């Protein structure tokens, strides 16, 4: 027997109350034998109660499926956020490389500016060098800002990954608890001992069947 069929059997046993079904069946058989109107109404009442129980268990089953669906949607959303975070990190790395390249160029420009300072137009060269240094300082500030953003993104990514693991652990724990409760309910469901009234009803039913057989035998003879 496969695992799927076993799960189906366990779920059906949980959804269906065997005791209520057996009680309803016995009352139906007894009603057919006696033909009393009161027992017919009681059979209908038992069927209504059985139907209400089935609807209740179906609602619980649908609710559990909905919770699982919400967990999956939340997991998908977090995974999408992680993907966006990774894309942003890649873009920040590319920007950092570009800034570093610009900084290297500025350093080369600074070296050129130092050589220009040795030329006759010294004052203007110094002014240009100061401008270059200002730009370099601004680039340094931009680089520091990018690094801080990158570190922040890394921390956010770690937080999201931790949240995913916690969510997965929660889902696994919920599933295990559901399986344990189902197993406990299955073990606690024992066949009920027939009451004295049920035994008397079964005895009357057997006597009626024997009487019908005797009448049929007499008609045949």
Structure characterization notes:
The chain is an all-alpha fold. The protein has one domain (3-187). The protein has five helices and no strands. The chain has helices at 3-15, 18-34, 37-117, 122-188, 196-220. Helix 3 (37-117) packs antiparallel against helix 4 (122-188).
Taken as a percent bin, the fraction of beta residues is under 5%
**Unreliable stretches covering 5 or more consecutive residues:** none
Counting DSSP H or I runs of 4 or more residues, the number of helices is 5
Whole-number radius of gyration?
Answer: 41 Å
In percent, how helical is the residue content?
over 70%
Shape: rod-shaped
Helix/strand/pairing class, anyone?
Answer: mainly alpha
Instruction: Give the N-terminus to C-terminus distance in angstroms.
Output: 51 Å
Global mean pLDDT = 75
Task: Quickly count the domains.
Answer: 1
Question: What sequence of helices (H) and strands (E) makes up the elements?
Answer: HHHHH
Largest sheet: none
Number of strands: 0
Keyword list:
221 residues; mainly alpha; 5 helices; 92% helix
Could you outline the blueprint of secondary structure elements for this entry?
Blueprint lengths: L2 H13 L2 H17 L2 H81 L4 H67 L7 H25 L1
Helix pairs in contact: 2-3, 2-5, 3-4
Summarize the structure.
With 221 residues, the chain is mostly helical. It has five helices and no strands.
